Amino acid sequence: MSGPLSTLLARFPKLLDMRGDSQARSTFKKLGDPPPFEGFHTLIPPIYGDFQAARAALKGEVVILGQRHPCPALTPWDLPLDPGPMMRELHAFDWLADFAALGTKAARARALGWFLGWIDRYAAGDGPGWTPDIVARRLINILAALPFLEPVMTGQIRDRITGELPRQFAFADAVIGTEISAHRRLRSLAALVQVAACLVGQEDARLALTQELDGTCASTLLPSGAIPSRNPEALMHVLAGLIAVRDILEVTGHRCGGSIQKAIETVTPVLRALRLGDGSLARFHGGSGGTEGQLDRILASARVRKRPGEEPQMGYIRLHGGRTTAILDCARPQGGPDAALAHASTLGFELSTGRRPFIVNVGPGMSFGPEWYRNPRTTGAHNTLAVDKTSSSQLAPSRGSGHLPQPLATRPSMVTMSQAKDTSGMWVQARHDGYMVDYGLVHERRLFVSSGGDQVHGEDVLLAPDVKGERRFAQRIKGAEKLGVALVLHFHLHPEVEIDTGRLPEMIVLRPGSGEVWVFRQSGGLLETETSAWLDPTEPEPVATRQIVVRARTTSHSATLNWSFVRSEDKGPSLRDFGQGRMRG
């Protein structure tokens, strides 16, 4: 497409940024003169940063969401980044913690230069950094890094930096009501309570924000401990924010709301249920597994000993036996404000063995640019069954230049599940109707993990549930009755899993590490392997990996595929279980 329309669509993200600039400047104008900085009651505790990212910055490479960008200038504010997650992440100031983790004089000077460069260019309300969640994160990062910056903060520089705190806090307090995403609102409110507790003169705001956060916890997190987005990583960040609120209110002698504490007690076991054996979170609906050790640190700081039950947690079922853990998505993808990050992952699962990730979803693609916005969200990027290369939830068509992720246009109207446990292991049976409208079929999956963790069995069934479904399927294959429809089962392997295809088509031998050997078998289809990708924000680029694929065709409105992962050899934990690489501990 060319001409005026294509030019306008290509400029659409920049037009959105210009609109945001105008709104931020208008808000500052309404607020009038900023309140003066009066001092600190306390500061935010140091934040874990990445000293390697700081070293890269000193050598001329800026690391944003794991990706490296050449930066020959002394500040990153002229980098030609696409509008979207990358640019917003830069404006959240997480890099302050990276420089503080390095802790050298050069790191301190560079951090100060970036900070002052941002003030010169964006402090009036320009740029993409004025959404409630980004402002709140920026304030937390500044308050945590002030002791690190103190040696180079002369009188005038100190006034410029500390003057930004009450000014940006007033802005965030004024616009927090515009945040419609539940988890971002919770996280932003938690950050603003912490900021208000730190700043002298913000006692009234602290009280009001604490009450608002308490009410939001009661209405959003309780009694289930879940968030609407069903993003495990987002829930982890919410819990971290609530814990920080509790701790800073204790330090400053103030009371934490009852619903805030209750939410901490409720969310903690939910996150424990979503933890795989390698210490990472299951990666669903735009969430990554977290950085190494991050989840365990947060769970430890919660001071909650309650363990999860066997019931579903936030729509996920945890099956475990021995050293093997599987987490299965048994609920509808989210709609509403979070639908732009929702994945078509219904009945998909992730699997770990020991401290090793084994079967993984492709992962979140938002940090790798617009070309990775769509495919990682499709059903084929998850460990489940796809029909005719379609998805159980359909993504809306891309618009404009593709810089904005699109919501799900359709979702299953029904997802049901039942589960059982006996001495042999744990079972779950789940069903969704995401293929009903187009094919007249429902997908039913049965998944079993043995009590010893040495067997994982699955059965995937497609069937028409009634006469109406049978007619719809017949209409779908009309004119191609001998071909029918294609069925594809996907099992994406973690990049560190070694794969031996020498015994195809009967079986595939897999070695995830730790001396284990697993064998994959199937019946009902053709066994193959294909390329895949593993996406993680801690990696500079997508990591190439492989996937197991089972292909079949059906001319009937009923089809069944059976498959299994069976451990054929176990030499026990080896040194690899405690090694480095992508493993999380």
Automatic annotation (TrEMBL):
Residues 389-409 are annotated as: Disordered. GO terms for cellular component: cell envelope. It is found in: Cell envelope. Its main location: other. One of its GO terms (molecular function) is lyase activity. Transmembrane segments: none annotated. Residues 312-564 form the Heparinase II/III-like C-terminal domain. It holds the Pfam family Hepar_II_III_C. InterPro entries: Chondroitin_lyas, Hepar_II_III_C. This is Heparinase II/III-like C-terminal domain-containing protein. It comes from Algicella marina.
